[in-house]
Amino acid sequence: MIKGHHPSTATRRPDRAALFIAVVLAAIAGLIFWDVSRLTGAAGYSQVGPTTVPYAIACCLFGLAIWTAIEAFRGDFPEREHQEVAPVIWIVGGLAAQMLLLNIAGFSIATGILFALTARGFGKRKLWFSLPVGIAICFVVWVIFAKLLLLSLPAGPLERLFF
């Protein structure tokens, strides 16, 4: 047995989730390389131009992809706990509801729904309580940003009722 290695790690298969992450990182790096390659001649007289930082980011992402793939094949990632799907569905559902309702219902109601569904995803079962609390908090946030700071946030029926 090799020093520092557990016998089960020698027979462990490559980590498929980590390999998928490596592929996604490499794809993002490739997309950045492709997009930046269309900006030819933008540097002008200087060696540093608008393509320098995106190329550096793409190189770093590609390096991370290679590193992640190597670690996945070596089996060095720790075993992950079982993921609960229901909380993720509640939170993603809240995000989707907010995006769909933002222009129709306004910031306070749409973001209040996001608040309530996220609270549900984190284990708060009383939607009848978290929904009005979320809407009230989001209304205060809307007043601060839209009326005091004069930033543009979508107004809905609740906001129009008061302003």
| Form type | flat
Q: What's the pLDDT, averaged over the residues?
A: 87
Could you describe the largest sheet, including whether it forms a barrel? none
As a percent range, the share of strand residues is: under 5%
SS element count, helices: 7
In sequence order, what are the helices and strands, one letter per element? HHHHHHH
What structural class do helix, strand and pairing data support?
Answer: mainly alpha
Q: Any low-confidence stretches, pLDDT <50, length ≥5?
A: 1-5
Q: Report the C-alpha radius of gyration, rounded.
A: 24 Å
Q: Give the tally of β-strands.
A: 0
Spatial separation of the terminal alpha carbons: 73 Å
Overall helicity: 55-70%
Structural account:
- Pfam families: TctB.
- InterPro entries: DUF1468.
- Residues 20-154 form the DUF1468 domain.
- The protein has helices at 7-11, 16-37, 52-74, 85-105, 107-121, 127-148, 157-162.
- The chain is mainly alpha-helical.
- It is flat and about 55 Å long.
- The relative contact order is 0.09.
Summarize the structure.
The protein has 163 residues and is an all-alpha fold.
Chain-wise SSE layout:
Elements: H1 7-11, H2 16-37, H3 52-74, H4 85-105, H5 107-121, H6 127-148, H7 157-162
Notable features of this structure?
163 residues, mainly alpha, 0% strand, disordered N terminus, Tripartite tricarboxylate transporter TctB family protein
